[in-house]
User: Which sequence fits this backbone?
């Protein structure tokens, strides 16, 4: 099989392949798959993790782990010898979040990129999210020119907007910064969306909002890793690139297929969207009143990510990076089903 990366024609001004990457968030779902992908391509990875247990898991993948925190003021010393930084660490809580989430996402991004500059690194990739555009309304075939919302859906959106702005503001001739935004990352080894959906379905707590027929973009983990590699080599500094599996699919169709890979029948019940929106509004009030101490049944942040259309135009990544999905949804779903049956 032809290597999908080497099959792409060389872009004008493409960078040399990085030799050693400093990777934050390496213990997370996306981070450990990025580490596995980089190591598999012969790139040395220094993986920032927070616990000795996570360090052992990254060592088993072939990375060199360092235990630390993205807010560490001495982070630059741990980046010695690296020629690029991939910043994948984030607080992805879709609840109240608040100041702690802002410190992690915005403050952490600033600290990581400042450390990279101090360490003499000239290239950084910031892993963002389509959620920077979320306000609870549908996002239909949006591209990178779509503005940030005047009223963000929640703390996660606010903090990731702030992080993205920090990253882009630090781009300079001697320090290139590229941003990628995937949507709904899924695939093998998923410890995020799939386990949550499976648990809800098994408990009878999953219903289709408004019938579930609205479209969603998705990003298989292999497609994300491929897009990150291309962005590091071909992305223009100061620019943002959406990544996805290509054409969107009906939310209900995709989630049903995901559940079926695990032998779980999809739910049949539905709930009106206005009812869910009202519950989310109450949840936000509970979170605000309790300072996040009292868990809310639902938030606008969750609603914005799963109850309305979110479809992305990846034309810019196709044109400028030579990006094309390397794994189709059908292939990814078949692989999930096969691994579940083993």
Assistant:
């Amino acid at each position: 099989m032809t290597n999908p990366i080497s099959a792409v024609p060389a872009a004008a001004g493409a960078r040399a392949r990085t030799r050693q990457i400093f990777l934050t968030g390496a213990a997370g779902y996306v981070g450990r798959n990025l580490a596995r992908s980089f190591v598999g391509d012969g790139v040395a990875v220094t993986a920032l993790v927070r616990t000795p247990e996570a360090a052992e898991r990254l060592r088993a993948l072939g990375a060199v782990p360092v235990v630390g925190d993205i807010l560490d003021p001495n982070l630059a010393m741990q980046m010695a010898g690296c020629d690029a930084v991939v910043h994948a660490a984030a607080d992805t809580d879709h609840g109240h979040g608040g100041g702690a989430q802002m410190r992690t996402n915005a403050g952490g991004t600033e600290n990581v990129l400042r450390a990279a500059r101090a360490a003499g690194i000239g290239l950084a990739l910031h892993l963002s999210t389509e959620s920077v555009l979320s306000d609870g309304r549908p996002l239909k075939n949006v591209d990178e020119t779509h503005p940030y919302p005047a009223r963000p859906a929640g703390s996660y959106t606010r903090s990731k907007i702030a992080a993205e702005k920090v990253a882009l503001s630090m781009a300079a001739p001697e320090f290139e910064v590229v941003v990628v935004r995937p949507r709904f990352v899924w695939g093998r080894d998923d410890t995020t969306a799939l386990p949550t959906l499976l648990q809800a379905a098994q408990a009878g707590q999953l219903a289709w909002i408004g019938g579930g027929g609205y479209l969603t973009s998705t990003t298989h983990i292999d497609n994300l890793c491929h897009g990150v590699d291309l962005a590091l080599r071909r992305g223009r500094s100061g620019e943002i690139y959406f990544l996805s599996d290509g054409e969107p699919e009906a939310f209900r169709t995709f989630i049903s297929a995901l559940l079926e890979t695990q032998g779980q029948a999809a739910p049949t019940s539905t709930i009106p969207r206005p009812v869910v929106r009202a519950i989310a509004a109450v949840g936000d009030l509970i979170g605000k009143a309790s300072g996040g101490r009292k868990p809310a049944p639902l938030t606008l942040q969750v609603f914005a990510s799963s109850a309305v259309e979110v479809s992305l135009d990846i034309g810019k990544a196709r044109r400028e990076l030579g990006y094309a999905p390397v794994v189709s949804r059908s292939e990814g779903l078949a692989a999930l089903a096969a691994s579940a049956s083993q």
Notes: Residues 99-118 form the longest helix (20 residues). The first strand starts at residue 20 and ends at 24. Residues 148 and 289 are 26 Å apart (CA to CA). The radius of gyration is 20 Å.
